[in-house]
Known about the structure:
By secondary structure, this protein is mainly α. The chain has three domains: 14-201, no CATH class; 216-425, no CATH class; 485-629, no CATH class. Helices cover 52% and strands 5% of the residues. It has helices at 14-32, 63-66, 73-89, 94-112, 134-148, 153-164, 183-186, 191-201, 216-230, 234-250, 264-275, 296-318, 322-326, 363-374, 405-418, 435-449, 453-461, 467-474, 477-504, 509-529, 537-557, 586-596, 600-604, 631-645, 652-673; strands spanning 50-51, 61-62, 333-335, 343-349, 354-361, 507-508, 564-565, 571-572, 623-626. The strands form three sheets. It has a four-stranded antiparallel beta sheet, sandwiched between helices. β7 and β8 (571-572) form a beta hairpin. The protein is extended and about 100 Å long.
Amino acid sequence: MNQIINITDNKDSTRNLGKKQWDCIDALAEHYKDSNMSSISATSNFSDGVWDVFGTDEYNFKWNDWLKDESAYPLLIACKVAAYNKLQISNLAVSTIQKEISGFINAFFDTLQPKSILIAERNQPFNGLSQLSSYDIQLVAQSTIAKNSGLSVSTYSCLNRFSTIPIDFFPNSSFLVSGISTPWQEQSLSCQAWVKQIKKIHGLDVTTKSYAPLKFEVVSSIVKNALPFIDEYFDTIVDVFDEIEEFHKENPPKKGRKVNLNVGSIIQKKYKRKLESILPLRLVESKTNHTGMITQGWYSEFEQLSQGAAAWIILLTTGLRNVDMRNLEKGCCQPSKRHNLLNYLITDIKKTHLQNYVVPVPPQTKKAVQLAELSKIDRSGSVLFQKNNTKSSDKSSEKRKMNTGEPFNRLIQNFASRYNISLKTISQNEDEATAHCIRATLAGYIGANSAAAILILKKLFGHSNALMPDAYLSHNPVVIAERNKNITNSQESLAEDMAQGMVSGKLSGTKGKQMLIGAEHIEKDLRVEFENKSVTEMDMQIELKGRIKEMLLSRIKENQIYALKTPMSVACIRSCSDSSDTPCAKLPNREKRKESGINKEITDALATLPNPAHCIGKECSDALFGEAWSRDLLGTFDYYIKYLKGIGHQSVDIKNEAELFVKNYGSILKDIYADERGDGYFD
C-alpha cells in the first residue's frame, strides 16, 4: 500500500509541492506496473511505450509517439490509467478508446502545455485537469472546426471518461482528474448533444450517419444459403465437431496446431458424403505423414462457415451491433417459460449501457445460437463467436475473442463470398456491407411494413429514446421508397376520386362548387378542341376525367395544394401559398403568439400549416366534400334521421345535436348522395 502524500497544504513551498506531485505520479505508475492486461493485449505491459492490442495494429496505443517529452509524463500516466479503466475494467471497444485518447492528446496538447496542465519539467509543480476551463474547451472546438471543417465527438468524450473514472483508480493522485468542468455539463447536455450544437452553430452537417441497407436480392440469397445450416445441415455439423472434441481428449493437437489431423480418417469414413453439400473435404496432397488426411485449412473454413451462417441469422432477426454480437456469450438464448414458440436473446447493449437486455427472437435464432455454440474446434471460453486465428503467446481463456469489429465483419463477409454473393447495398457509395448495414436492412423492412416501426425498433435495438429509431427510418432508402410509393398511391387515388366527382357533379361545399364550375369550363374547351373529330359522349367523358385528374395530380405533386383527408370526412385542398392562419390552427397559433410575444403582423407573413386533427368541416372554405371520401357523414346523417323519427323520450341534448347536424349537412349531402336516398330525405 502506497503512503498517502498530501499535496494540498498551502504552507508547502512550490518546490516541495512539485516534488510531491511527481512522487504521486511515480507511485501511480508503479501501482499499475504489473496490472492484468488480458483484455487489452497478450504481449504488452502497462509501462510499455506501445500497447500491442488484440486484433489489427491500427488501434495500437502508440504512447511513445503521442507523448514523447518527459515533461508530458503526468499526462501520459493519466491517459494510460483512463484507457486501462475503460478497456480492462469496463470492457469498452479498443477502437473507441484509442480514438478518444489519441484525439484528446492531439487536440488539447497545445492548450494544456502553456497552462502546465499535467505537463511540467520533472519535480516542477503542475496543474490538474480542473484548470482546463469550459472556455478553453470551446476554443479548442472552434479552432478544430476552422482547421479541419469538422468536429469529432470522440475527442471530447475522453474528458467525460476522465470525469467518470472512480477515484480509487487514482490512488493518492485524484488531484490529476478531479473537478473537471465542461461546457456540456454547464448546459445540462450530453457531450454528443453539445458537439452537435457546436457543429450546427458553425453551419456544419450534423445529420446522423446513415448506413445503406442491403438490396433485397442480396438478403434473399443470404437467407437461402444460411437457413440450411440450422435445418438440414445442423446435425451433421454438430456431429463433426463432437468427433473432433472427443478425439482431442485422448489425442490433443501438437503445439501451434488447431487440429490433430488423424481425426480426419474418422470424419471421412462417417461424414464424407454428407459434407459434400456443405463444404467438400480437401485432402493433403504432398508426400508427408499426413498425405490423404483432411487439411488444417478445411477445418478452419468449416468452422468459420458454420459460425458465419449463425451470425447472419442472428443479425437479420435482432439487428444487433457489431460490438454486441462479439460479446454474446454461450447460453444467451433462453426459451420463454410461457410460450413454446417464443425465445429471448439476453445481451448487453454497449452503446446505451443496457445490461442483460432481453430481445424476443424466433426459433430460428435460438437454433443459430446453438449452432454458434457447438460449431467450434475449441469449445472453451464463454464467447459465442470466435476469430479464426490467435497469437500463440495468448494464454487467456478468451484468446479467440474478437476485440475489434474487423474480424466479425470478415466472418459475415466470408460467408457471402463462399456463395459468390456480392454484398451490394442500395447506396452505390457504400463500402462492403457491415453489421450496421444489416441493422439498417432490418430497420427498413420493419419501417416499410409496420405503422409502429419506431416503437418496435426502440425495443428491438435497445435505444433509450425514439430519436435513433427515427434516424434509422428517416434516412433509410427502403423506408423512403416505401413511403414515397404510399404517398404517390394516395395522391393518385385522391386525384382520381376528385376528378370523378368533378365529372359526375358529386362534389359539395364552397370549394366543391368552385371546382364544378371549373369542370364546366374545361369541358367547354374540350368540346371545342374535338369539334371536328368523331368522338362519342363516352370518349368525351373519359377524356374530360383524364384531363382533370392530370391537372389535379400536377397541383398536388408540385405542392400547390395540400390535398389532405381529415377526420371530418372532407378533403382539405388549401393553397400552399396561403400565409394566413388556417381555420383549423387559428386558436393554437393565437395562443403560441401570446406565449412568445411575437407580433401578429410577423406571423401573418409566414405560412401556417393546416391541422387536420382540428378540422372544422363545412365551416372551412377549403373543405371539399365528395362521394368517395364523405360517406361517413352520410352514415352519421342516417343515424340522426332514424333517431329523430324514433320515440320522443330520449336526451334533449342528443336531439338538439341531431337537429343541428341534419340542418348543417343536409344540403351538402344532398348534392352528393341524392340518388342513393328517396325524395325529400335530406330536406
